[in-house]
User: What shape does this take?
Amino acid sequence: MEFAWSKDDQEFRKDLVAFLESELPDDWQEISREGPGSDAQAEFSLGFCAALAERGWLTPHWPTEYGGNAAPSWSHAVLGEELWSRGEPRGPQYMNVNWIGPTIMEHGSDEQKALHLPAISEGRVLWCQGFSEPEAGSDLVALRTSAIADGDDYIINGSKIWTSYANHADYCFLLVRSDPESSRHHGLSVILLPMDSEGIEIREIPSVVGKRYFHELFFTDVRVPRSCLLGEEGEGWKVVSYSLQYERVGAPRYARATVTLDRLAELARQKGLLDDPTVAEKLGRARAACEAARVLSYRVIDQRAHGLPPSADTNVARIAGTRVDKLVGDLALELTGSSGLEAGTFANANFKLAMTAGVAVGATEVQLNLVASRMLGLPRE
Amino acid sequence: MDFELNPEQGALLDAAETLLSRSAGTARAEQLVALYDAGEQSADGYDHDLERALNDAGFTGVALVDGMGPLEATLLTSAVARQAGCVSFGANAIVAAQLLGRTIDGPVALADTALPGPVRFAAQAVCLLVADGEQLRIIEAPATDLVDVDSNFGYPMATLPAELLAAGDIVEGVSAHRMRALWQLAASAEAVGCMQAALSFTIEYLKNRRQFGRSIASFQAVQHRLANCAVMVESARWLCAETAAHNAPAEAAAATATHTMEAATLLFDDTHQLSGAIGFTTEHALHHWTMRLQTLKLELGGAGAHALSLARLRWTDAEG
Assistant: This one.
């Protein structure tokens, strides 16, 4: 065991921080206020990610043949921490580098790799994720959106829901049922769907979280060539399981929570509340929870660095990350008082970010199920 | 960064676990309590035999061996706790080793003058390390006419009279804050071992216990509680290891203790709740780990005090 950052990682962090300090504009707080899905941030991300990519910092952990530097997995963790803690200037592109790219690398054809990976590693493409459906939420394999083979094409019909970033996306990573006679995990496939295809309708679902946070996608006879199929037809569940392991720890929520907490402590100091033991104790407990989530995320990255297969440690880390997000989000409102209810304020933004944490990427209860069966070996019946 | 044990650490833990499976375990803990309760002359509730075995095998002084350090001592502290060893291993192998640069040949007790009340191993200790405000005091070969309080929270414990505490020699060049940080780590490492054992023992019991025609462990309401426990134990375990690897910096030690003692509350409540009435009996081994968790939780003022100290360390200039 060894818990120190390598010299290379430390150097990288130093250079990255210096770059961020010079690259992020003075009004970055303003731009990032509405979260990674906002128009402002999606637009900003295209320029910003290109600048990152120029330095090889968008996908440093990718193999060189796909536009990376073959850097150790830990450099990706450094990137995630520094960017998430600053409000994720990569916008929706954090998904591309965290899990969409790696999944294409693992399951894609040569043609798909050539089409998608350079675009991702150069920071010039936006993606969204089409998994959930109105009747397939936590029970994802109940999904019904179909892609039926028709000659050299697939014809897609159905709908997807809660799709963040759909309004900006160039592509959708779409999970469909390719065998209409199948059920559950069988007969699923993944389609890399160009969002400019005929027959796609995008509707915003108004929410209390933020503007254009959720969308519903409707597919009516959307025709795409078979070359859009990722992996084998009918093997979609295998592909998506691979993705989810990356997605669930992709966003280091603890890093943002840690920075938010420091700002809250500063706010408490200005209000003369930092000496109040009830306030200090809450801040201290939240700080400890941040540290707990951090070390669990590191555990997952370490397994990846060792080339170990994905394990339930990913779900453990996700549960802890969600917990800390909610703790800090609640504390932000509590410490700022009713002024935090005003849209656009610091506390408001953090609360909004936290309120969906336990539902996104598989509800906490689903994560708990996976820990119960995979880590603790608890029986189903 | 590397979370896997290196070969030396793996060999060390294997060897310790072999020794512990022979010389410790819940049957041994039960035997110690029975002898103690029967008023057996030589039985003071402390496992002197286990301590000797750990000393002779070189485990107690592991942190002072070239190439090893507080991380290895911390891993062993958790291992001893998993096997319900009733010895002051963490106080000796982590706290004394780092503060004094040597280990003590016999039981070690840790106290803080600001926190009166029974102290575990106070009557058995051949060495007391006492945090007194900013200063660290050491009392070797204390007058041992102390009488243990009547308690079944997993360790023999006695109240230290103020005049005894004041009589110690001040250890120059070492602050009480440093001692408290190491103590936070040692208590956390021991709690981690207790929690790991309590959780896996409870899981095995619930897998086999059938009600309503099925294993209790198959109910989702039960599974989610156990999974939440696992999240807390895993995070406490890794925080301990990381803090130990950095030799217990004050802020990291406070964060580790805050989180670990929060975890201990959850583990105590849930393992007992899910075990039902059998969990409260002495024939069911659960209590060997859970009752100790309560004692560990109260040291240095508990999770609330650790959290306060963490807040001061991170956001003010105070020393915790």
